Queue: 2 jobs
Job 1
Amino acid sequence: MIDHALNILTTGSVFFTVAVGLLIILSVMGVVNLAHGAFMTVGGYAAVIVSDQEWNPWWSLLLAPAAGFVLGLITERVLVRRLYGRPLDTILATWGLSIIVVQVLSDRFGRSSHFVEEIVSGDPIEFAGTFYSQYRAFIVIVAVCLSLGLTAALRYTNVGIIARAVILNPDLARVLGINTRKVNAITFACGSALAAFAGAVIVPMSSVDPNMGTPWVITAFMVVLGAGVSLPGLWISGLVLAAAQVLATFYIAPVVGSLVVIALPIVLMRFYPEGIAPLLKAR
Amino acid sequence: MRPTLIRSISRLALVAGLAAASAVPVYAQAKKTGAVVGLVTELSGPASLFGEAGLQAAQLAADEVNAAGGVLGGKLELKVADDNTDPNTARQVWEKLVNEGVDAIIFRETSAARVAALPVAEKANIPALYANDYEGGDCRPILYVTGEIEPQKVPAYLKFLKDKAGGGKFFILATDYNWARITTEMVKKAAPGLGIDIVGEEFTPFSTTDYTPLITKIRDSGANVLFSGIVGGPDNVAFFKQARSSGLMQKVKVVGNIALDDTTLSAVGGAANGTYMAASYFMTNDNAGNTKFIEALKKKFGDDMKPQGYLSEPAYDTVHLYAEAVDKAGTTETSAVLKALSEVKFEGPKGAIQLTTDRHAAMPIYIAEADKKGAYKVVESLGVQQPPKQCDPEPPFGMKKQ
């Protein structure tokens, strides 16, 4: 039982970390960034560079978001900015961009897999009669810090207040003299940085290859679909999907486990097209 | 490449001239010297790691055969073709080789490519020699398999793992595809006779990144042996890193791999430290035959030498076995060569290989342990293992079935 709870907590934290960048871009800009997976892959390769140079693995947590931020800024300037108000075209354009990024990475690093040093390693922690991986504990801490930091930034900083204003009513925000272009550019860059950050966080437990982002962009999309525009909603959605995946993998089969992550949000959409966010607000 | 190409073009022109009206292929010529063998392997695509190593092994063997006087008083020539790790391409390059009049085809390809391409050799009625490990059971009369088959090593390997762990509770974890499913069935069939209890089995999709629920399940099952058929570097790294960091490796006493070959292990590195593998060939085996083989490869290829493993080394044995069979038969004619193949023996890097009348191969099997640097070290020899009967012996060999 405790095993399941811990596994759900860690998988949920991974889901949250992976999806939060997508959520921020979607809620502020109304843009579905399908290059999210490609930005995660960039973060993964940032970790590969850190590992290859034999730097301290902690540097990957800095290098990855920096690379993501710059890439996001450029993408917003040359691509996304020209497609505002055309959501379908943005989806196509960002998907196309992700193909280009993946090809560039394949060309530079090759198609084979790379493996990355763990940021936190060591013997498992013994906890309530079971063993728990230090790295997984680290991921939970990262996810919690990330959500607290973002909540604080949205609530207490000027940028956060402006961002919330744009989320609530973009037109009114512009009328009030808020430079929505600037807000959008910064939002997109931050979302991309978060994607790359997530990539660097998850790769030490698996591996890096040019296509690693594709399954993750689907997972991230599904988690965001379930959540709606809300950070607590993203946590709930992430944990529920993690629970479904962990339990289905354990009690039925791994294939069913990966299937429910996709099936569950689709069923949810049928009844709550806005995700679970409105339910949280209604209280 | 260049001289071979020119020669094959001139040969084609010659053939076209000679056989302008009839469709009689080249091997109808009387009194020929030497032999031309098609060598098909993966020089691009996902399996190219094995294909390039297999090509080097085969080229070395051809050099050795020619240095020792060649075959039938002439040269043994390899015509190399790349199947791009793709069954469709495989079929096309086989057809091209047959049109060029090769006497036989030696191939190191995936099972999917094998199934797609073999009808080409059947139609042309030329011997096909499969220099690879596979699950067994392919009984086309023109086909010889020179690599090991899983049923040949699984029972002895299971017994080794059970003895090592001091108990017979096995959990099987494998990647979800045909080969692994067939191998799992083999393990389950052999288990009761060895006093082994299968306490669980799970199949994971390719590129699984999160193994945690399964690690919990393996731990809860009380297994003392984990039998792993996880395929490929990324999946093995993800699993072993997560298993190690969550304490599973301390809980199960013994982990036996069946799909983690030494080329992949070198990419996986230390994550699989302490796990076992059974195969006919390990590059680190320090017997005399292998030392000589590795020295010769280093001399021929220098820094370009690819690491060898049980998925590539058979190409070396196969070229030698074919050359000996042709010499013994005194001809490259198909039925005579097929018959001679079951009578020749080759002493190579892995030890003595003897092809069987049901067109598979008896050979020594070794067990090795992975070390911290991602290399297997041989820890035990299981001796020569006969393949269980796969096919009906079929004299006269090579008769075309209508």
Job 2
Amino acid sequence: MLVAADWHIIWSRIFHPNGPFAHALWATIYISIVAQVLGILLGLVAALARMSRFLPFRLLSGTYVLIFRGTPVLVQIFFFYFALGLPNVIHLGVFNLTAEVAAGILALSINEGAYMREIIRAGIDSIDKGQMEAAKSLGMRSGLAMRRIILPQAARVIVPPLGNEFNNMMKTTSLVYTIGVYELFADAEQGYSQTFHTEYFVAVAFWYLVLTTIWSLIQASIERRLAASERGDQLSFRERLFAAWSPVTAWGRR
Amino acid sequence: MTSTGLVLGDAIMRATDVNKSFGKLHVLKDVSLEVRQRETVCIIGPSGSGKTTFIRCVNHLEKIDSGRIEVNGSLIGYREKEDGKLVEDSERNIAKQRAQVCMVFQRFNLFPHKTALENVTEAPVHVLGVPKDKAAEDAELLLRRVGLGDKCDTYPGKLSGGQQQRVAIARALAMKPALMLFDEPTSALDPEVIGEVLTVMEELAHEGMTMIVVTHEMGFAREAADRVVMMDDGRIIEEGSPEHFFQAPEHERTKQFLSKIL
């Protein structure tokens, strides 16, 4: 029972995090960000392939989504870790990645790309086809029109579900603990297995909550800015803060 | 001499026996039309007669099934193979041709994430490669010309329909097109702002812009057109000067149509 919990453990994990904890927190943050960014890029490529005139591209894009959206991410993580046989340490310029982290990021981003493809495609589809026609009638080629006219507008539609995806991503990174990545959940699990105090899980839940809350503030601010640039007005700090707590009004106000 | 006192040049646009179907619906039937430099041609006719589809073909926003459309002597949307067959041209060439034929749409289609000025500078900067500050200068002049010099930094969402359509006209003018196409430019507007858009278009016609205007505004056709073309059921059934059209139409269908609309 939480009432009888050892609050000391929870408080100390929250207010006096130790060295390994900081390392674990950082791992969770950068794995989430890198996997999400790669996922967005993959999703964009797949979304464009889906709209291609070239049939093999469309088929490839469809198969990709079918497989990676249709199988558990945990299975994918295990597959990439055990089947790929990555070298123990991968040197990427100034960064060194362990095989576990690399396989984890790979699996998460490829999985994420499949979901992002649908989100990006829906965003692009939501833009009135008159926009593409206007761009084309002004002599723009479809690539330029996509980049300058369609995607900036689609971004407004893409950002809210993208925010949910990233929120999910930060929590899903806990799964890479299973292939030996030392991230937030691994840190908690280690604390628990040494002491059998379940309080470690309460503390780690708190930290996930901190991450997702910070993100929702950032997301709301991005959404407000996108909406504002379209309306052409600026918002006060107070309005932005209010919007952060109320994602519904952020959209309802248009 | 045209009815607006301009001397017509050579043919800018020449459409020959254009056919187009949407599935089983045959919307353009052997349409042939020539438009000369500095000429303003109004296309009128009932809805579904193929007027809009025709000018969309001139901009290659629709493919055609047979026939040919030339602007400034070059084939639009297609290239001719050695055996005389037409195949769709490369995207690059189509884009190049479109840069000299600009369309003003019924629903404006302004870019909502860009200010009025940015809407106008977008294509000159990114298609023609005009330096940004030069493009901005030109755009300001164009916006002033359509009476919107004070709205440069306003987003389309804050403009009235009439203002938006005038920005769209400035946006098309910025490409210095050889031919401008207007697809029912006032049909989506409130009655009280139609006038401001028509005035701008009349000025353009008098200044010698070559224009094809699909419209239901008979006042505009009478005032600014050099020639009026009546379409019905995918065919051009009658064409002539506005005087001819509004005083002594020959075709039974034209009389019927005009009596309903005037």
